[in-house]
Amino acid sequence: MSGLPAYRSVAGVTTLTQWLFVRQRFRCFLDNISLTTAQITDGWTKIRGVVFCLNRNYWNISSETQNYVLVGSWGKQTTVRPPRDIDLMFFLPPSVYYRYAARSGNRQSQLLQEVKSVLLPTFSRTDLKGDGQVIVAPFDTFKVEVVPAFVLESGQALICDANEGGKYKTVDPVAEFNTLDWNDRCSSSNVRDLVRMLKQWQRTKNVPIKSFVIERLAIEFVYQWPHKGYDEFWYDWMVRDFFLYALGRAGSWALMPGTGELVSLGNAWLSSAENAYRRACEACYLERINLNQMAGDKWQEIFGFEIPRNA
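RESULT FIELD:
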């Protein structure tokens, strides 16, 4: 990042000869977990196919671009490779809501089954499944999860939850995106970079932590981190300091943007975060004294082989 010093001040002493490998190591790491051009093309092909099919059936239009929004990692631009799924929220006409309001039983489950039946003729080779809030289309490369929704006057969305007899739930994908995007822009992409690295940790170590918890903790952490806005030269400290911050938030709650819903952050991931923090502390010390391979070994214990051993 231009205009920022390529050094750190430790105990009042400024040094230019330490941390020689940090910037290159983390730049390479982020490149290694970025989607390839082929994966992006594949994803958009699937998105356009699903949207076209639903628009044709529900809105009587031939459009690949209307009445939907990408949510989850694709929508928030925090996907890591190989991609596992695309979350696509499709907005149904209000008439569909009122048609189901006149029914009895689990209306939300019935609506999910209808959307599934609409997709089935086009995607007959895909084993479509209804799964609580989504229709899952497990394509050969990765799956698309379709969330049927209705737009509210507030701009928020009403989605189905077929669990426990069925109900509707209010969500605000625009507010979620804007909150993450604003914090990311205010920190020179530190938030999205951190989220993507943490998702790699989640995947590599099979950490029982949900993606929205990662996002909320990353946003909170970067907002108050004194070194936010610096480039990859500071990312070893960013990872270390994040895990320390997360340890203090385990078992607590966070507010969802827009709706104000109080959600549990859980604590099943606590021991994994404790281990990662210890490894990160060791790696940061080794980075400071330029022990390249030894530092790389410690980072790989957190993130796997996608972060290079030799920077």
